[in-house]
Amino acid sequence: MEAASVAHAEHHHGPPPANQSSRVEPQLLGMLLFIISEVMIFGAFFTAYFFIRVVQGEEWPAAGTELPVAIAGVNTAILVSSSITLHWAESALKRDNRFGFKAGMVVTFLLGATFLFIQVNEYVHIGFSPQDTAQGSIFYGLTGLHGAHVFIGLLLLLFVTIRAFRGHFSSQSHRGVEVPGIYWHFVDVMWIVVYTSVYIL
Amino acid sequence: MTARLRAPGMPRAGLGLALGIALSYAIVLPVRALYGFEPLVDGDAVTIVALLAAPFGFLFGLGAFDYWFYWASGRPTRPEDHSGHGATSWRDYFRVNTDHKVIGIQYTVTSFFFLLVGGALAMLMRAELAQPGMQFVSTDAFNGLFSVHASILIFLFIIPVFAGLANFVLPLMIGAPDMAFPRLNALSYWLLPIAGTMMLLSFLVPGGSFATGWTAYAPLSTDAPLGQLFFTIGVQFAGASSVATALNFLVTIITMRAPGMSFWRMPLLVWANFSTSLLVVIATPFIAASQFFVLLDRALGFNFFVPDRGGDVLMYQHVFWFYSHPAVYIMMLPGFGIISEIISVKARKPIFGYRMMAFSLLAIVVLGFTVWAHHMFVSGMQEWIRVPMMITTAIIAVPTGIKIFSWLATLWRGVLHLDTPMLFALGFLTMFVLGGISGVMLAMIPVVIHVSDTYFIVAHIHYVLFGGSLFTIFAGVYYWFPKMTGRMYDERLGKIHFWITFIGFNLTFGPMHLIGMKGMPRRVADYAEQFAGWNLFISLASFAVGLSTLIFVYNMVASWRGGPRAEANPWRALTLEWQVSSPPPIFNFDQIPTVVGGPYEYGVPGAVHGVFKKPGEVAPAPAGRVATAPKKE
Ligand SMILES: [Cu+2]
Q1: Is the model's pTM score more than 0.90?
Q2: Do B310 and A33 touch (CB under 8 A)?
Q3: What is the ipTM of this complex?
């Protein structure tokens, strides 16, 4: 009996804990590297934009079309404020203010969803399609790629919100909020780049 | 039955696959009805959506996402009980396994399967090319053969097999119990068979397999039949797999090194995979984007590559080569790492210029991003780009040259053990120098204008990827075979394999330089009468190479099943993976070793790399110094 349980324990003993050779946390580093490759995806789409708008010298936006700069500007403000509310939620969590944390997450999620809704609405009313011109393809390509990232980011925020309401996370353990948070801030910063180059310049 | 369909595994994966295909119908039909498209059921549209949805159904069924779903919904996650570690029967290789050693073997065996497939396609091509005129296949089928051959061997063999070897060896080498993200690691592996199966399935669709080369230049690819999309989408899965693995390697190397293992004490294989992973994380998104553009143009009628709508055709080549030039280093740097290990161990000498070896890897990473347009010298791009790209291309030969001289200096007056891994390492050294020389020739604009799209290019790429990468892969597989399987391979068969491959390889690809210079175009099924003699010769030699691969496969299978048991350290190597049993214990180490010296102090009396004592008992020596200085007598 004794021997059997010892053998059992022997069999189920886990790996020795890995040595931590860096002060950076693995999850954080992983997310940063993932963001680097995401930036490169956007870089490739901006390369297409550069070749068509600058190298080829195509008119921007295509003749007879207009971009809703003002509405997109409001939308930009909405996305930027969602980054601020997310930061607010995180600092509430670090003070163990659960109400602030939950409220911050919900507001952030709603702001992000509003952004996506306005973006889709813009596609419906913009008056040109990606099939018309290369400029249209670039416009829908870049904003669509970003929209897809907003969608993924919203899913991550949704997961965090669900877990928040189930009582997960605390001032001691908040990596599960921090890592999706970094992604959301990245999506936000990327939008400012997209907005500037597509709508303003 | 329902229990088996509910638990993660192959039956549920099959169900997921079926559901994925059903979902594609459920998406496509209503959308087409909404837009009033005729006919309602469109094979092309359903196939394209299914190519994206079915793999996710399969992965979901297999259980690749289970843990994350539990985590995301806030349900209690199963604490890791390590039941996913180790493999006791062959069945354990067909499920989501989080053990890096199992994943390493899954990766290696899968990619060798694709080597055999890609090689068989090459044999078919050489059969067709043995005589002028058309014998076995149509011209379209021939285009498909060389396209699938190249794509399979690049995306499903060379790139993943290096990831496989490193998956097994790298955590052991740095003294880590596993990779940083074991579940992501399992997912990266399972994306591979999906990508490979997709590319091979393209042979079955109407219109034949994709036939635009592995480069899939637009607008050729945006007008191609349905088979093209099996490449376009397959590459996305292979690319996602590479990025996930690279990210995993980088995090593992940075955060999980054993105490005392400073960056300047890492074995060069670790350095090589560190550099390669940087390249993958930065460059691979570009090929993903290039294929997204093709997909959007081909499937949804976008205009990225439609010139009369303002699209830019050359943009494809810029984006594609911004990945695919670094990709040649993704296919080479891990091999450099393997060769550094083997040459130092088998010559019983410290590697010459260890730090220069590491710096030259990093130099290649940086310079690799500055040369892409040398693939476009005859494409009609802006002329002013050509000379700068010619100069950077010539410069990138310098760090590679540094490595060659370091290996030669390591061999100099060493005690050479000429067994199979070393033979392949030396074979690599000679063949890669030849491939490098033709590479520098091709960097020169006047030369490339003469030989562009001829067999000279085919000769060059095979000297680099076959004589270069594949030789390092063979060397690495023989070298780590005892560690991975716990058995010794048959040395005599290994040597026979080497000599037939080495001679057959040179007889196959050497003459291609000549017929290329004389102007035989590549990627054609038929050719002028004057090249008939050489082509017959090349075809016969290539069959010898094909046969030698069967010797290798026999050796590996037979030795794995019944070879003599391997000792823990048959090569008397210093690096950490050889300090544990063969095969390694289920969690690699009972306790994490402490590193006290450099990894290559061969022939230095009393030199040790790592010791198994509890941290604290041994004070790690200052980083970068040899802990035990050689005694002067
Ligand atoms: Cu190149």
Answers
A1: yes
A2: no
A3: 0.91
